[in-house]
Amino acid sequence: MTNSPPPDPQSSDNTPLGFDDFIGIFVAFSAIGAIIWWSLARNPDAFNFNRILSGDRATTTVPLLIPSPEATGREEEVPRVVPVPPTDSPEVPTPVQPRTPARGQVPVIVPVPITPASPTVPSTPAASPTPKVGTPINFVDVPQDFWARPYITALSARRVVNGYAGDFFRPNQPITRAEFAALVQAAFDNKPVPGTTEYKDIPTNFWGIPAINSATRSGFMEGYPNNIFRPTQQIPRVQVLVALASGLGLKPPASPEQVLQSYQDAAQIPDYAREKVAAATAAGIVANYPERNLLNPNRNASRAEVTAMLYQALVQAGQAEPIESQYVGNAPQ
């Protein structure tokens, strides 16, 4: 008799299951059921039993879980839908409405480039154009103490007025109507209007046609009856004041006659010009030298007087700074 160990017992197919076996089976089925429930909760459309039972083989979607780059190293996975083409007749797929990602699901966010809006810049009111100012001309016949020298100097710097050969200005020389039209055009930067003239007494080759057309169309000047302009006529002072008041659109004061009574020779003002002269006086455009209370309305205007009154018109229009003078400005007292 030997001391060898007894042989291992052979298992039998008819051996009944023990309590531990039932516990293992229950745990296994519970795990399978939990996995199925979790899958249905994540994608209820993946198991459409009605369509399976009805034999519908249209396009279905199978969830394919691919880890997103953002979820690398984490448990969350990004569901992506891979279409399965139909095997029979094509069918228009029903559009899938966007769904809110389930809890624990990482949504794929596609960045949309946003163009930054242009910053709002507050609008600035348009300012009056700044006149081009250069070096004034030192006229040899305009002394330092000449009453109109500041006005002549200012407008020569803007190239509104020019002199003659040898730097002469000839301040006391009368000015013609055509020359006055050219000064108005230059002072207010009005564009010349080329073409033929409407006036019968102006030759077709006359040098002042563009300036005269500009002055008449801008409202500064008018002709005489029967289409007469008289371009070479020396312009009276009253016509200068009427032209500037008209071109600036000045309104007559409430009591024009009361304003005109400041002039000792107010009776010499023509009837057609009284309201315009009163408006020019109230606006501080009038220049009277050497007597401030004498208007001399019918005397021909000199180059110095026209320059001073033209500068005052620019002041009234907000295009020039005032210049103090005892002969130019406000209505006489």
TrEMBL record:
TM region positions: 22-41
PROSITE patterns, per database record: SLH
Cited PANTHER family: OUTER MEMBRANE PROTEIN ALPHA-RELATED, S-LAYER PROTEIN _ PEPTIDOGLYCAN ENDO-BETA-N-ACETYLGLUCOSAMINIDASE
Keywords from the named record: Membrane, Transmembrane, Transmembrane helix
A Pfam family: SLH
Protein name from the UniProt record: S-layer protein
Every SLH domain range: 135-198, 199-258, 260-324
InterPro entries: Cell_Envelope_Struct_Comp, SLH_dom
Biased composition regions of type Pro residues, renumbered to the chain: 82-98
Region annotation Disordered: where it falls in the sequence: 69-102
